[in-house]
Amino acid sequence: SQRTLVLLKPDTVKRGLVGEVLSRFEAKGLTIVAMEHRLIDGSKADEHYVEHVERDFYPPLRAFVTSGPLVALLLEGDEAIEVVRAINGATDGRKAAPGTIRGDLSLSNRENLVHGSDSPESAEREIAIWFPQH
Ligand code: ATP
Predict the structure, then answer these.
(1) Fewer CB atoms < 10 Å away: N or C end of the chain?
(2) pTM
């Protein structure tokens, strides 16, 4: 079994889609190990997105992820990292396949509802940031 860090970004909360998105992970069979609803500041965003802070798209991404509360999730299951990324779909909601969270519910490259760790190393780093007690 494997653990992964998922964020339901502020657009998910603002659009009232937390239940819809959580349902998909639960229905798949992933276990919610920890869950927290919180508003983050810019320094927390920088810590999470350390690989992106120098990118052109980062300033608006930083503004977006600090614009309202999000929900952080620690999910567990067999091959959870890859499974979550498949459920999330491609980064750009306009191109993500129907059947995925982004493909069904997002029409944006930035406001794409969810984040999922992209490797075991990222998952370990991100879980330490969001759920240090785990
Ligand atoms: P995540 O890491 O959030 O699961 P991802 O791995 O599909 O998404 P990354 O390339 O790591 O995407 O980018 C992180 C986030 O930055 C994206 O989820 C999206 O919100 C935003 N982003 C990425 N590329 C762009 C872009 N070209 N324009 C605007 N926002 C972008």
Answers:
(1) N
(2) 0.96
